[in-house]
Amino acid sequence: MDDSDEALMGRVAHGDERAFRELSRRHVPAMLGLARRILGNAADAEDVAQEAMLRLWRQAPRWQPLAALRTWLSRVVVNLCLDRKRKAPWVELEAAGEITDPAPLAGESAEAAEREQRLTVAIADLPERQRAAIVLSYTEGMSNAQVAEILDTTVSAVETLLVRGKQNLRRALADVIDGE
Amino acid sequence: MNKNDFDKLLSGAMKRLAKPADDAAVDRVLKRLGGPLPRQHRPVGQILGVLLDWQFAPAWPRMAALAASLAFGFAIGISGIDRTIDRSQGVSSADSGALVFEPESLTGGRP
């Protein structure tokens, strides 16, 4: 049996709950990670991931395979994150836990580690669309065209968001960067 | 720090922060999704499409049973078996007609 995302969506569109559970198992981890990186709040990220999957279930009969399901879901997650009126506090540095790949940091100086932590906080302070663009571009490794599709805007607008986001980050880290 | 160095710093930091969601959180979300699901939004066009679908698929066994019943009834009528049975029971078509259509003696009304 074809178990591609599109095939499963076809079954979900006919009310197949097993297909929906399979899609959930497949996509919830990534959507949860994306929401967490944009919101910076684990509890809110869980709510967003759940709501995104429920929207997938409800909208399945209307879904048209114009884009990859992953892209569609990412768009829903980003929109849900941006819709949250209150600015969720970025995850505390202690709560962020250990860094996944410690190797690059192992030989670096304490200043470099601190600089990275400052950068993390600065990203949290970015306007939400700039933050979303930077997260999608740098963390998810998406092209500007994909980011534009998810943010429902043009590629040039994404480029502007990225440039402004990076300018804001450089400004926030001016004392650290200029010291080098 | 030039632009390229800053890009490298940003890229490296973001990739290190991109750790996967922890299993407990994933399990919690999946558990919440395991409950009863809401009603799906079906487009109106889809409902109309069902109503306007003229390609009905007949239930062939029922169609065969209906055709067999028709053929059986036609054969009985042609062969006259029913009349034979009526005669054997002492009932004629004239008698039954008189019972049904005879005017009432008092009022002259017909049933």
What does this entry look like structurally?
The complex is a heterodimer of chains A (180) and B (111). In chain A, 70% of the residues lie in helices and 0% in strands. With 180 residues, chain A is mainly alpha-helical. Chain A has two domains: 5-83, Rna Polymerase Sigma Factor, Chain: A, CATH 1.10.1740; 104-178, Winged helix-like DNA-binding domain superfamily/Winged helix DNA-binding domain (Arc Repressor Mutant, subunit A), CATH 1.10.10. The longest helix of chain A is centred in the first third of the chain and has 23 residues, at 17-39. Chain A is elongated, with a radius of gyration of 18 Å. Chain B has 111 residues and is mainly α. Chain B has a domain at 62-101. Helices cover 64% and strands 0% of the residues of chain B. Chain B has six helices and no strands. Chain B has helices at 3-17, 23-33, 44-51, 60-79, 81-88, 93-101. Chain B is rod-shaped and about 120 Å long. At the A-B interface, helix 2, helix 3, helix 6, helix 7 and helix 9 of A face helix 1 and helix 2 of B.
Which features characterize this protein?
heterodimer; A: mainly alpha; Rna Polymerase Sigma Factor, Chain: A; Arc Repressor Mutant, subunit A; 10 helices; 0% strand; B: 111 residues; rod-shaped
Q: What profile does the largest beta sheet of chain B have?
A: none
So, CATH architecture of the largest domain in chain A? Answer: Orthogonal Bundle
- Summarize the main sheet of chain A: none
Number of helices of chain B: 6
Low-confidence stretches of chain B at least 5 residues in length (pLDDT < 50)? none
Q: In terms of structural class, how would the helical and strand content of chain B be classed?
A: mainly alpha
Number of strands of chain A: 0
pLDDT < 50 stretches of chain A: 92-102
Number of domains of chain A: 2
How much helical structure, as a percent, in the residues of chain B? 55-70%
N- and C-termini, Cα separation of chain A: 58 Å
Give the SSE order of chain B as H and E letters. HHHHHH
Beta strand % of chain A: under 5%
Oligomer: heterodimer
The CA-CA distance between the termini of chain B, in Å, is 111 Å
Evaluate the radius of gyration of chain B.
Answer: 40 Å
Structural class of chain A: mainly alpha
Number of strands of chain B: 0
Secondary-structure element string of chain A? HHHHHHHHHH
The CATH homologous superfamily of the largest domain in chain A is called RNA polymerase sigma factor, region 2, helix turn helix motif
Given this structure, which CATH class of the largest domain in chain A is correct?
Mainly Alpha
